[in-house]
Design brief:
The protein is mainly α and 203 residues long. The protein has one domain. It is built from seven helices and no strands. Helix 4 packs antiparallel against helix 5 (144-161). It is globular, with a radius of gyration of 20 Å. The two termini are 36 Å apart. Potential subunit of the gamma-secretase complex, an endoprotease complex that catalyzes the intramembrane cleavage of integral proteins such as Notch receptors. This is Gamma-secretase subunit APH-1.
Length: 203
């Protein structure tokens, strides 16, 4: 969560600089969501490097020479913390709007604003969790393709939110992306169809 907050701070500084460089009547330089996504992924990579060092340190201190926490567990916790803090920041302005004044939809706005925002935030938390698992696995196995797909998926999800308030054009594709990314993360974590069947049969 701390690394995500650092990336948010860096994105805010970039936005402030772009506003300062543009004229009084000009639009700011087109940094926006893409720069924020790239900074978040840089923060995720820095988190991986730090946890990798911590994992090596824990292994040297343990009696059997192995770390008590696996890298997959660290990936899951890191992704979940990225998702939770990202979800909190994305929903806080919406909760502030819900305090009033007025009623959503009274001036022609969508009456589904709050419910779709809740579903988008849920998808965002899940996506960050899945991206964390995939990202750490790709870094560990040195697979540049996996890293590129994570960054591309993050850029796609952020870009789809720009289609709002056309929620039918953003919500559906984001949930399809969440499902596909979840299956990919399940496979990256060592899951298989056989393991699902064994779990359901309580073996």
């Amino acid at each position: 969560a701390f690394f995500w907050l650092l990336s948010l701070l860096a994105a805010s500084l970039l936005w402030f600089v772009s506003r300062a460089l543009s004229g009084p009547g000009d639009a700011p330089l087109p940094l926006g969501a893409a720069a924020a996504v790239l900074l978040q992924e840089l923060g995720r990579f820095a988190c991986f490097k730090l946890l990798k060092k911590a994992d090596e340190g824990l292994a040297t201190l343990s009696e059997d020479g192995r770390s008590p926490i696996s890298l997959r567990q660290m990936a899951y916790v890191s992704g979940l913390s990225f998702g939770v803090i990202s979800g909190l920041f994305s929903i806080v302005n919406i909760l502030a709007d819900s305090a009033g004044p007025g009623t959503v939809g009274i001036h022609g706005d969508s009456p589904y604003y709050f419910i779709t925002s809740a579903f988008l935030t849920m998808a965002l938390v899940l996506l960050h969790t899945f991206w964390g698992v995939i990202f750490f696995d790709a870094c560990e196995r040195r697979r540049a393709g996996g890293l590129g797909l994570v960054v591309g998926g993050h850029l796609l999800a952020s870009g789809l939110t720009l289609l709002n308030p056309r929620y039918e054009a953003s919500l559906g594709p984001i949930f399809i992306l969440t499902l596909c990314t979840g299956l990919w993360a399940f496979g990256s974590a060592g899951g298989s169809f056989r393991s699902v069947l064994e779990c359901l049969s309580c073996k």
